[in-house]
Every structure is written in structure tokens, then in C-alpha cells.
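Memo to structure team: turn this sequence into C-alpha cells by end of day. - J.P.
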Amino acid sequence: MKALNLLTLILLIVGGINWGLVGAFEFDLVAAIFGDGSALSRLIYVLVGLSALLQIMPLMKAFRIGEPHAEANHRATSVRM
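Reply from structure team:
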């Protein structure tokens, strides 16, 4: 799972940089490298989208309410105040 997590994070970084370039300069780096509308470009876009979906799971786990360590951290910070 660790390797998959790393791969999806890398793909999301590539996708984020590409969207930044599209928004700022109307330049699609993926299309420039692999061809506009090519099967490889479309595959990259699909992999970035799937990576985003897969990263929802760790995000949900990070924000899960009711975990014992989350409650312990909350109690420790409220006592210090």
C-alpha cells in the first residue's frame, strides 16, 4: 500500500502542476509531451483521476472522528489551556 500511496501522490503532483500550467499559461504539458488527445495523454489523465480517488481513503482516515489517539490529543490540548 505504501508504494501505491507514493505513486498516487506523484501522479497528483504531476496533475496539479499540469493544471497550474493550464490555468496560468494555457499550456497543457501532458498534451505537449504525449500529444493532444492521444491515447497516452488520456491514460495519464485517467491515472491522475484514479489517484485522486484513491487518496480519498487516507484523507478520510486522517479526519476520522472518534479515534482513540485523536481524543487523547484533544484532551491533552484542552488541559493545557
